[in-house]
Design goal:
Elements: H1 7-18, H2 25-32, H3 52-62, H4 68-82, H5 87-95, H6 104-118, H7 120-128, H8 133-150, H9 152-159, H10 172-183, H11 185-192, H12 199-215, H13 217-226, H14 230-245, H15 249-255, H16 261-275
Helix pairs in contact: 1-4, 1-6, 3-4, 4-5, 6-7, 6-8, 7-8, 9-10, 10-11, 10-12, 11-12, 12-13, 12-14, 14-16
Length: about 300
């Protein structure tokens, strides 16, 4: 965390979340006489400026605190005091806090907000580096919510500036693209097909196609039928077939009702290859040969001529 962020943005959340609650007036009185490095975060007006040496010494002392809760509170305070002046010490304190701890989670949320304001890719990449699924999900939920409020399309395009080389299933751009597809699939689809041919383009096209065909089959299948680029169409078709193969047969049949006949046949054949189910085709009834031995009787004329007397 080499970047220097405004300290006041971090201060509020730390003071709310990291201030340890005391059980009684006697306990609170006792704690007032001790350094808050082991008993919670000081109010802002009591905050002192510590030199790098003092911060390192405090970090060493905090590591020796036996109580995990008190140790995390002390580390949170060090992160606060060092965040602006000594970001490396702040980072070290943060990393030594207990994963999923009460004091660490608000710090994660605040760091996420600070990072996403600078660079969405940096924010999402940082979130992936956290210590547990709970922490990763908490950070990403906040980041994506912020991106959604701002502009998911803009966020996706911002992430793609460096190219799609790392557009894997867990990549930041895929995380944002999935949410853009959920909100505006036609826009997301129109955007991903503009990239030059590459394995990564195949990944993002397939991601949009498979997600869209489940959410809105009619619109997705119409888009597939109109795709002019054979390579893009092939990627989208395979992705849709894989998504359809995961659906129950009756549901799949309903999803394909609106498809162009050629598109439907194509997808049904691909699904059959994936599921090993036979392709059921509706054939017209065979024409019957006329029975020459017993020809049908001749039809009576509608207005027969009267017989002569």
């Amino acid at each position: 965390m080499s970047a220097r962020f405004p300290l006041y943005l971090l201060l509020a959340v730390l003071l709310v979340s990291c201030d340890k609650r005391q059980d009684s007036g006697d306990a609170a009185s006792s704690n007032d006489s001790k350094r808050s490095a082991t008993h919670g975060v000081r109010p802002p007006h009591e905050r002192t400026v510590r030199s790098p040496k003092e911060l390192r010494e405090s970090l060493g002392s905090a590591q020796k605190i036996e109580s995990a809760e008190e140790r995390d509170q002390a580390l949170a305070e060090i992160a606060l005091d060092a965040f602006e002046s000594e970001p490396e010490i702040a980072a070290a304190a943060f990393k030594q806090m207990t994963t999923d701890s009460e004091a660490r989670m608000p710090l994660i949320q605040q760091y996420a907000m600070l990072y996403v304001a600078q660079d969405p890719q940096k924010a999402l990449t940082w979130a992936d580096s956290l210590g547990s699924e709970k922490e990763i999900d908490a950070a990403k939920e906040l980041i994506v919510h912020s991106l959604h409020e701002a502009d998911l399309a803009g966020a996706a395009k911002h992430l793609a500036k460096a190219g799609l080389a790392n557009a894997g299933p867990e990549s930041p751009i895929m995380y944002v693209l999935e949410r853009w597809t959920a909100d505006a699939p036609a826009d997301a689809a129109a955007w991903v097909v503009t990239f030059p041919a590459s394995e990564s383009r195949s990944v993002v096209v397939g991601n949009v196609a498979s997600q869209w065909v489940v959410a809105d089959p009619q619109a997705a299948l119409s888009w597939l039928a109109e795709l002019a680029n054979p390579a893009v169409r092939n990627d989208a078709s395979h992705a849709m077939a894989e998504a359809l193969a995961k659906q129950p047969p009756a549901e799949r049949e309903t999803m394909l009702e609106s498809a162009d006949p050629a598109v439907r046949t194509e997808l049904e054949e691909q699904v059959a290859q994936i599921t090993h189910e036979p392709v059921v085709k509706t054939e017209p009834p065979p024409a019957t040969e006329p029975d020459k031995a017993n020809p049908p009787p001749a039809a009576e004329p509608e207005n027969p001529e009267p017989s002569p007397p």
